[in-house]
User: Fold this.
Amino acid sequence: MSRSTPPAAPRRPAGAARCTVTVCRGCCCGDIVPGLDHAAQLRDLRRALNGTADVRVTDCLDACEHANVIVVQPSPAGRAAGGRPVWLGLVNDLDATADIVAWAERGGPGLADPPDILGLYVFTPSRRVRARAED
Assistant:
């Protein structure tokens, strides 16, 4: 984890509305980054966020220049508080994955500020790409 990672909040009760972490695993994401065990990254996200956030895998998000792409979508409460989906690109190291986990455990967009280091990974995809992925 990065040095700026805040303490983790208690896990949410089962069934509570939670944020969604969408992991791109089509086209380029999931296979072109040398030295990264893509299957382990996904497995670690699922294990760490079990009971805290929903993790889903999607086909190509058409943002290949940012591989590996992960989108953190707010829970209903996070959206009501003003949270919007946050697109993270070049998530190719364990520290970035751990920071995403820490943020989701604290509630994700709208409910908790992300660790500062994740600001380096944020990008804005085209409207067409956003519309398709955020439905």
User: Anything to note?
Assistant: The chain has a mean pLDDT of 85. The chain has four helices and four strands. The CA atoms of residues 69 and 89 lie 5 Å apart.
